[in-house]
Amino acid sequence: MTNGAHPASVVVVGAGQGGYQTAASLRERGYTGRITLISGEDALPYERPPLSKAYLKGDADESLLWLRPATYYARQSIELVEGTVTAIHPAARTIRLADGSVRDYGHLVLATGARPRRLAVPGAGLRGVHTLRTARDAAALRASLRAARRAVVVGAGFVGLEFAAVARESGCEVTVVEARDRPLARAVSARTAAHFARLHREKDAQLLFGQGVVGLHGDRRGAVTAVEVSDGRRLPADLVLVGIGVEPRTELAAAAGLPVGGGITVDSRLRTGDPYISAIGDCAAFLQVRSDSRLRLESVQNAVGHARLVAERLTGSHHAYGELPWFWSEQFSTTLQIAGVAEGHDTELVLGEAPGAFSVLLFRGDELRAVESVDRPGDHLAARRLLDLGVEMSPGDVEAPGFTLKGHLADRGGGSRGIGGISRRPRRAPVPDPRT
Ligand SMILES: Cc1cc2nc3c(=O)[nH]c(=O)nc-3n(C[C@H](O)[C@H](O)[C@H](O)COP(=O)(O)OP(=O)(O)OC[C@H]3O[C@@H](n4cnc5c(N)ncnc54)[C@H](O)[C@@H]3O)c2cc1C
């Protein structure tokens, strides 16, 4: 085997969004070898986005989160194994599980995701202090929320703000503490950030920016009672959600001697330094062909796109990863959709007048890099198509009277069939990879 295609067996470590999709796409592409999907959680593969949205609000049980019912895996001959992989032995092409068992692989896919960062302050282990990554976390948080009166959210990222919205809607007093000077600082433009800050304040959430958490206080029974912030204030709380970002789960790869740096290092075809091991999704820092820089993303679209590319490679179709990143978030009844990655933009232009419904177009020089749409789904779809096709568009075009993204797309020939025809997970034309 020189190019790694058609291995006799594929073992996938991690049965989250990316792991599940790898197995499913392999079978869709007619792969007939053995597939083993190893899950570190005691649940069927499930989707995480509802954990901070619909699942948290309702009474739904976990089965609603499942990507597929149990019968699917049996029918597709996908062996689902519950267990934690503790070591990879690349020379022998084997892995070891926590129960001591050893399995061999023809190709290994690391889809280990990420884990929430913990607060490194006194009191972080008190009862009532939560993080949110797994269905189990969400079930515990949902139960706590039912009894809570005052919630403090540490970190104004997507998970923190989505939880804050649900907590406010359930009648809880909410304070969000953020070390930076605005919410979603790593992810969106100042304009979009200001909109979400306003939205939460209108719903009577307190937002404290430029404040770190220095400690958590509890009662004699070990339950959290207050969060102390850097200016000395103590914020009463009977529930705390820590949403200060995640760390990619790279330890297995690092211990096996694979290159790691801000994620498991992979090339534009998602191969690690070992030709028999790939890495995908939240844990993978991949080489972008177009910009020649490395990127690690945390999104469903990225995990699914990576998984499909690896399945294609393992079944003989070789090309580099070049899908356009996109993402969404829901807070109260507002939907934010992002197409592209802003990365060092220098110009922000806004489309839309109505309060609460607008798109921010982010340019670097004359190049459109990303579009953030708030309750403008039509703009989002057009933006995805424009960015995906690489349609030229400058800030000057946007300032022309009557400009719309959809109109610009139609003018440049990407329109009529294009907008309505975009699937939820767009595929890009194969991108030639100059490195291989
Ligand atoms: C609350 C929440 C809300 C989100 N909302 C959105 C959203 O609105 N839109 C969006 O695009 N994205 C959202 N995301 C992000 C999205 O869910 C992730 O990007 C996606 O799940 C990544 O898929 P993955 O397969 O890389 O990792 P994961 O889905 O995290 O799966 C990794 C799996 O690997 C397992 N694992 C790790 N190490 C081992 C080991 N050694 N042995 C066995 N198993 C192991 C883990 O237990 C885990 O089950 C959200 C995430 C969260 C937590």
Q: Could you characterize the architecture of this molecule?
A:
By secondary structure, the protein is of the alpha/beta class. Helices cover 25% and strands 27% of the residues. Helix 1 (17-28) runs parallel beside helix 8 (300-314). The structure holds flavin-adenine dinucleotide (FAD). Residues 13-19, 38-41, 48-49, 51-52, 84-85, 111-113, 132-133, 159, 249, 252, 281-283, 298-301, 303, 327-329 line the site of flavin-adenine dinucleotide (FAD).
Short characterization:
This protein is an alpha/beta fold and 436 residues long. 25% of the residues lie in helices and 27% in strands. Strands 3-2-1-7-19 form a five-stranded parallel sheet.
Q: What are its keywords?
A:
alpha/beta; 3 domains; FAD/NAD(P)-binding domain; 5-stranded parallel beta sheet; Enolase-like, domain 1; 26 strands; binds flavin-adenine dinucleotide; 12 helices; 436 residues
Bound molecules: flavin-adenine dinucleotide
Helix content percent band:
25-40%
Strands, count: 26
**Strand percent estimate:** 25-35%
Tally of structural domains: 3
CATH architecture of the largest domain: 3-Layer(bba) Sandwich
CATH homologous superfamily annotation of the largest domain: FAD/NAD(P)-binding domain
Q: What form results from the Cα inertia axes? A: globular
> Largest sheet at a glance?
5 strands, parallel
Low-confidence stretches: 416-436
Radius of gyration, taken over Cα atoms and rounded to an integer in Å:
23 Å
Looking at the structure, the CATH topology of the largest domain is FAD/NAD(P)-binding domain
Name of the CATH class of the largest domain: Alpha Beta
- Structural class based on helices, strands and sheet pairing: alpha/beta
End-to-end span in angstroms? 16 Å
Count of separate DSSP helical elements = 12
> How much is the average pLDDT?
92
